[in-house]
Each structure stands twice: as structure tokens, then as C-alpha cells.
Batch of 3 targets.
Target 1
Amino acid sequence: MFFRALQLSTRTASHLRTSKWIKPCSFSNSAPLNEEPFPVPDNFGYYSVILPDEPFVFGVSHIKPRNVPDHIKRPPYALNGSSKDIQEGAEDRAGKIPLGGDAEQKLRSAASLAREVREYAGSLVKVGTTTNTIDAAVHDYIISHGAYPSPLLYNGFPKSCCTSINNIITHGIPDNRPLEDGDIVNIDVTIYLNGYHGDTSQTWLVGDVDLPGRLLCSITNQALEAGISACGPGQPFKNIGQAIHAVIEPQYQGFDFCVSPAFSGHGIGSVFHRKPWILHHLNDEPGVMMPGHCFTIEPAIIQGTHPTSWTFPDGWTASTENCARSAQAEHMVLITENGAEVLTR
């Protein structure tokens, strides 16, 4: 999970607020005169478009966070009410942890619990279930294992996980909308256990998802695995974006896909988000992977060839601008002396 603020586009989705189903995704191209309008897609499939409720409510101060028992250890940002995440672990300035010791074991334990939570969350996905119900269950599961749900109160985020449906790229806030037959939903979970974070996500199919939606989820996981395959000691970080591009650049069974450049992976350990930043698109960023680096790879793959996004009035929920669907999958990768290990597999 990576939190990056996005600016509201000059071209909002105001003309889409009555949209319910897409086949094709047809709407008026009301772009400013100095912008090229998006071509109307003709193969995005059948699905509900997620849009902000009206009247708009700005921010999330109206959403009450769930309670966390006093005995649960909290990350610094949940204690001091600030957005600053303070390092408490053994990482050096480059974000590397010492291998073979207590820090590595704690990191592995956090990642292992995150994997369990991810799979538990996926088991709750079914037609008619609300994402608020899933969030409540995930919150209780994490607490019952002596951990803290890392998203809660991070920069003011009001829930314990992120649930991003259909055209939502990331940071969807759980609510009372029932999941519908044909939805896809990404559930992004992060836990804080014994001073270390574990972070992972997956996009789940709800009921009978159409072919374009299933292909989107399939190529997203292929892109993640390609990024992982580029990892190892001495390997440039930019190779991750190149590997992902090689998967999504050709058409996949007759469909076009692209990767969102707005959200990156990140270093993780005693701090939720830190260097190294992992770019999923083609880039020339410097830096190489070294033993002790631990980071997430979490490409958000989008239908079509337009990865532009905008943020809802809540300040968190990021949607594709043309309402194409997006899927995301995420793993934590630890660079060792001899290779790269996926901690959340």
C-alpha cells in the first residue's frame, strides 16, 4: 500500500455521476479545449462504475475510526496524531535491515501475518457483502493476533484496510455498498506487529466476472511476478518497471493494458513507507538492490492505454479518469545475499 496525494483533475467525473453500467464505456467527451479527449473504449466490459456520493463530503472527518484495545502496540503516527512515521527498528539510512537477526525475524513474522490477513479477507468476498463488513472483520482478525491495522489513522485514513472496486485504482475507503455480481475488489492490508509492518494485497473476483475483468486480474498478477523476477542483489531498481512493461505492453488476448504511474511500491520495515521507492513504469531511476533491502512491488494495471487518475472529494479514493477498471496485487520482497525472497507468498 502506498499513499500518494493526487490532485483533482481539471476534467472531473461530473458528467458520469449517473453512470451505472458500462458496455461500452460511453460518455460525453467534455475535455477542455487544450486537451485531447479520451477515445471512447469499446471493450471494457460490463461493470458498475464507482463514483463519489452526492452531495459531496470533503475529507474523512465524518468517518469514525474503529477502536483498538490499549494493549495493542501502535505505530508512532497512531500515537502522536501526526503524519510522521518514525523509525524504531534496525534499518540503516538506505532502509536495509541486518540479515540473520531479530529484526529480520520480526519482519518475516509481520509479513506472514499480513499474508494470513489477506487470504482471510479474500474469503469474505461474495455478492451482497459490504466492504465495511469486510473491514470490520479484518480489523478484529488483526487485533486478535496482537497486531495493529497499519492504515488506521495513517495520515488520517479512517479505516483498517483499503477496498478498491472496479474503476478505483487504490485507497478505496470501505463503506456500506454491497458487492455486486461482476465486481472486482482489491483488498490492501497492512499490519504492525512487534514494531514491524507487513503489507500485501490482492484483487478478488466477485461472482461471475466478465472476460475483460478476469483478464485484467490475470495480467496484473503476471506483472507482479515479472517485477519480482527482476529482483536480486546488485540488480537495478529500474529493472522492475522494465519487466512489468514487457508484460503489459503487448496486447493480452486482444486487450490493451497500462500501468498507473501515480502509485509506487516502497521500502517497508519499522516504517510503513520509506526508500527505496519502487516505480512500476519505465524509468531511469538510479539505485541497485542490496542485501537487507525490503520493499513492496504493487503494480496497478488499468484497462486500455490511459492511466490518468483523479481523487474523490474524500481525499483518498483514486479512480481512473475514464472509469476503466483497475486491478492491483502486492508482495513484500526481501533481498538476501543470494537472491530475493517473497515474504508474503
Note: The chain has one domain: 55-342.
Target 2
Amino acid sequence: MAGYSTVKACNGPLSPPSGVVTSPNWPNVYPLNAECIWSDIENATTSKNKLLHVSFSKFNLPNNHSLTLTSSVDKTPKPKVLTLTGSQVPDDVIVKGVNYTLTFSSVEKKPVLQSSVGEGFVLNYKYLECGGSITTAKDVIMSPDYPKPNNKSQICAWTIHIPDTSNNKTANILQFDLILDNKNESVKSLLEIHDGGSINDPVMILSRNATLNKTRLLSRTNKLFILYDNTATGTLGLIFHMNYSTHECNIFCDNGVCLHKDWRCNGINECGDNTDEIDCKGPGPTPAPTPTPAPHKGGSGVASYWVALCLLFGIVMGVVGVIFLPRIYRRLRFRNYNTLHEVSNPVA
């Protein structure tokens, strides 16, 4: 019987402030029976809780292989554990704790004749100054030191994931009011609201009108990712206040996305599958233009087949004239002579 052993293919630190972690041998396939560990070595002895944000750009692991994130909170003996597997790219993860450890395992639990591996994973991690993971049906998110201005170099992130509905006819999405107190339009770039559970999801427009400080928006699903980054400007940060609640949706695009009322017939494919632009009442289609007649060759305006017929007719008449006109002419000229000749003939 064949024997299997664990191969230590990789390990490393989760060093602040940020970094990238990939499966071993990426972008090639990872080895079987590998166990890789990345840990927060620099802060392993501290008791101060920290926020860690993890996002994925690639993820594909068979169900018998896994990636596990472990952390402890306030020196509790039982650590928090999050295990990820499968072929779907996970939503972003924000956890609070100390002594973070990230473990990848492709160890076969029992001998098998044939095993398969997945594509692997690519993840980005970043330590945060503020933020968190929110799962309540309604809540409030504010900028650091709100309502006072803040000019500290900080990066904060929040994930919001409200509960699903208990039936298939409706879906919960997020309705939120965003208040921006700053007069300077340029600082709006410090805040990003992503329409989904990841920093890789599309960014929502903060304001329909640049002159308004308050914006009400609806999400497409029951998830949002919010990022506030004031690490690069060194100027006065953005003051914002976001109040969200659960909005029940009962009209859907064909692809399952909640169909907002203001999406209908606005000329924009908001659904992504054009459902919101079907059966729209509007101005009728522009009539097709009258076809332009084909230009006539030669500029005479006479069809070519008439020209051919006339030419043929002229040839025929010419031949007839050459053959018969001389005979007719002689007959008409010597008509009296013929008559005299006939009379003078003797009678037999």
C-alpha cells in the first residue's frame, strides 16, 4: 500500500500593513499533501486586537482541500475559525482579533488512487485602523471621530451582509442614506461603496448631483463593501454618515438581480441582461428611408433595353431598305414602258 506524507511546501508571515498570499507554485498547480502556514509573527505576543481585511481575486479548491483563517479574541482560549473551500470566489472577510494564522492544506485524509487539485488562490490582506463586519438588518456607519473632522492617516473597511428572506418571491437589499458634510468635492474619492460583498465589486455613484450632500441609494443584492482610505492624501479627511436599512424587493431581473423602479425604461441596461428595458413605451421607431433609385448610365434617362430594341429595329429596316427599295424604285420609274411592252406583244 502506498504511503502519504505531508510536504511543507511554503510558510511565511502576515506582515503589516498589507501583503499578497498565493497557493504554492502559483500560477501553476499546487502540490498534493502540502501544508502551508502564514502567521502574524511580529504581533504574536501582543494582546491588542486588530482588524484584518482579506479579499480574493482567485479561488478554486476541491472540497477535500481548504484554506483556514484562525484568530483569537481578547486572549480567549478558543480561537475563531473560518474555513473556505470550493470553486466560488468568497466574499471579503473582515475579522477582529490577535495572532492571525492562515493555513492552506492539500493533505489527503486517506489514501486514494487518483486525486485532483484546483486552480489555487490569490488573496490580498490588509490591516485596518477601524471598520468591522455587520450582519444586522439596520445600522449606522460613520467616519472616524464623527462629527468632527479627521486628518489622521487611516484606512477603514466595513462589510454589510443583511439576512436573506425566508421565501423565494422576495429578496432583501440595502437602502441607505449617505450624508457627506465636506464642501470639497475632491475628498469624496476617499470613500468607496462597492455594490456587493467584495472590494472587487463595482463602485456605486455617491451622488446623483454634485451639489447635494445627501444621497439615497439602493443596492443590487443584500451585501455592501465600504472602504474609507485617507492614507495617501495627508489632508483633512471626509466626514460621512451612512444610515442603512433593509428594503424588501419583489420585482426581479431575469438574472435574479432586484429590479429597482427607477431602472425601468431609463435607456440604461441596469439589470445587466436588459430586462429593465423590455416593453418600454416611447417614440415609435424611425421609419426606414425611401430607397434611392440606382443612377442611370449615360444620363439619357432611357432604359438600356429600349436602346437595344431601337438598334435592332434600325438594323432590320436597313436590310429591308437595301433589298426592296431599288426594286420599288425601278418599278415606279418604268411603269409606262412595261405597259407599252405588254400591249405591243403579238397575239399568238
Note: The domain at 132-277 is CATH 2.60.120.290 (Jelly Rolls).
Target 3
Amino acid sequence: MTWGLSHQESYYQPRTLEKHADSILALASVLWSISYYTSPLAMFYLYRKGYLTMSKVVPFSHYVGTMLLLLAGVACLRGIGRWTNPQYIQFITILEDSHRIGTPEIKKKLASYNFDFRSWPVDFRWDEVTSRSDSRGISLLRPEPKHRSAANGFLHAIKKLPCQIASYIVAHTFGRRMLYPGSVYLLQKAVMPMLLQGQARLVEEYNGKRAKLLACDGNEIDTMFVDRRESSEPHGKKLVICCEGNAGFYEVGCLPTPLDAGYSVLGWNHPGFAGSTVSPRVPGGGREPRSPGSQPPCSNHQPLLLSQSWGENPGVLAPRGLVTRTVRQYLNLNNGEQLCRYQGPVLLVRRTKDEIITTTYPKAMAEEGVQVVREWLEASNAVEEASVYSSYEVDEDWCLSVLSSYQAEHGGRFPWSVGEDMMPEGQRQLALFLARKHLQNFEATHCTPLPPPAFRLPWHL
């Protein structure tokens, strides 16, 4: 526990008994994490050597039981050391008052401490502003319909059962940890000093406010809110919700980009990441659109900027087999499918090594349109991009009039069928015009932060 995320910084000093006991428990936690991730290989090795027999397992279980009793004694000694420390007693008093009273003054005092976030009181609950029935009206939160056919009979289900069991085990053990490396305890342990430093910076320099959100699925989400509505920043009244990637944390993630651009910002950690509790999961219906560079499940169709994003996972991870089946059923993060259900304006930032093309104008992006967009995307620099764009003599006023007319006649719900009855020349112009509006090139690698000048709101009619 660190005390003093404030300008009058004072760090909590554990006494000798607590310090040594805490070191032993921390070491035991690391060893347990290593044992957990290497357990499949260890079990295979022990089985091959013939050690998985009752004559060998029973004495080993006695050793394990003895170690657990010793660790329990060490935990008791740490507790004694804490309760004899006046600083810790003061912290516990504030923590209990925050749970019992919860006044702004008490929460402000609690924010001066950094401790296990599981003990932090819940600041906001999902059922305070909405209901579970309301959430079903949001397209990104609705489960996918299940299609039934004659093939899905009893015998077919029995035949698929071994593969389904294997996929379930893979997805709920090491699979989701490979997909979400930020949820791995060892990685979090390694980056914890940077996370604490980043959190202190957000609180001290930007007056950030940390809070716990209780989601409808039981996850407790660690958030950081920087409010600039009362500041002199021109964009302070606009809130940017920052969604980190599969190994990102808001403490050291993409928050600085909109912060330096003058926006109010809300950052949050995925479930299982740092302070957010429970393990990350993506249900088969894709209820939670979390992915590398994922979008928040917004219901009011606000602008969306998508950067550093993958396409469909099976194409990235494996060509076929168990991995593809597991990813599609349990860990599918197909951003293209989710974007087709998103009704707000979108801007895609394309990294030089992250090629993504997602469209909500399928008729305009027919064969003619795709060909010229590919040519435009293959340009190596901005000068070549402008040359390709000008070579097709794109009439931007005409494109705007076509889109405006379609919107007035058919409404704004995507996907649009604009360009369906258009000549190839018109499709090419419209495709290039839309690509230039919705795609932004950024010459950098995957993990390079987006600079504030490159952060802009998506274009819309």
C-alpha cells in the first residue's frame, strides 16, 4: 500500500514484521502463478515419469498442506504488524468510513491511498441509470441469434461434444490469457511500478478522479476521470472514453493523446487488468466489444476513433482447427462485424503494419471502388496519396450531394446502399471520397502512441 498520491507525498512505511511477512507472501504468490501456468507441462512430465501414483501423491499433499499452514501463519504475522502501525490504523478507519458513510470528503481522503482495489467502495452501479431490459436495445449488447437446423440434432451434438469440451477448456484456461496478456499476474507484477507512477501523474497533474464502476455482469471496473468542463480548454466539454488494448492499462495507455488535445477523458481497465476485478471474457454473442483498440458500447452513436486494431482473430492466430473453433465460439473479436452494427461516425487510423479496411457503404465499395481504394492505400506517402486521389478527379461537392440526398430519402441508419445503381466512374469517386474521410494513415508501428495533432473527431454529414 502506498500512501500519498498528493503533493504532500508521504509513503507508507511498513514495520519490520509486516515488511518481511509481506515479502514472503509476495514470493509465494509469484511462485504460485508460475506453477499455475506451467501446470500442464508439469503434469505431463510427472505422468511420463510415473510420479502420479498414490504412493507419491499422498506424501506430496502432506508437504503442500504444511506449506499452506506456514503461509497462513505468515499472513497472521503480517496482520499483527499492520494493526500495530498507527498509519495503517488511520487508513483502515478512512476505508471503513468510505464504505459506511461515503461522503465526498471521506472519498477524497481515500483517494490519497493506493491499495488493493477490491476493497475500494463502489462509486457507480449499472442499475442506477439503466436496467437490464434497457441494455437489450443497444445493438452491440444484443446476443447473436442462434440458428437451428436439422443438422443440429442430438447425434450431431454428441459428435461435436468432445471438440466443444476441448474448446471450452482452452478458452477458459490459457486461451483467454494469451488473447489478453494484460490479465496475466506476472505481467502486471512487472509493470506495477509504471502503473503506480502513471496513476499518480493523472491524479497530480490532471486532477484525475479514480472510481469503481459495478457492471451488469458483476465486474468491478477501475476507472480514471479527468473533468475539464470548467477549464479554459476549447474541447473540455467533450468526453473521450479511452479503451485500451489487450495488453494496455489506462495508467500508461492512450489517455495522454486526448488529454494533451484538451478533451475531458474517461479511462478504464478491462476486467482482470490491474484494479478491475474478475477475469476477461468475451461471451459467444460478443456482448462486450473488447479488443485491441476496441470501441465502447455506446447507445447514443457518438463519434468513434478506432486505432491499433486487429481484424478477425482466426485469420491472425491460425488457419484452421481447434484454435479457430475456440476463437470463433468464445474469443471472437471481429471489429468489422461490430462496426457494421455501429451507427455513429467512424474514423479508422491505419498504422503502417496494421492494415484494416472496414466499410459501412458496401455498394460503393464494390469491385470498382475496392480497386481504387486499394491503390490509394498502397501509396507510400502523403504525396502519392494525393496523386492517386487527384488522378480520379474526385468531385467532392458531387459526392456530398449524393450522400446528402440518400440520407434525406432513406435516413441515416447503416449500412447504406448508396451507389448501387451508379456507373463505375461514380463508384470510384465515391469510394475514394469516403475512404479519405474515414481512413487516416499514421506512419508508425503498432504500439506507438497517437500524437495529439493526429487526434481528430470522425467526419459525418
Note: Strands lie at 2-3, 113-114, 124-125, 209-214, 220-226, 239-243, 264-268, 304-307, 346-351, 439-442.
